[in-house]
Amino acid sequence: MTVGPALEMWSRQTSNYQSDGLRTTVVLQRAFTVTLSSDDAIENAYSATGLPQVGDSYPGTSAVIMESSSIERVGPVFAIIICSYRGETGPLGDLSGNPTDTGYSIRWGVSVEDAEIDEDFNGEPIANKNDEPIAGIREKIYDDVVYITRNFLGVNRYALRAYRRAVNSDVFLGWPPGTARLIDDSSEAIFVNGAIAYWRVSAAIQFREPYRTTAAKAWWKRVRHEGFKVRDTAGATPHIAWDLGTKSPSTTPVLLKRDGTLADPLSTSFSGADWLEFQTLGSLPFNALGLI
Question: What CATH number should be reported for the domain holding residue 40?
Answer without folding.
Answer: 3.30.980
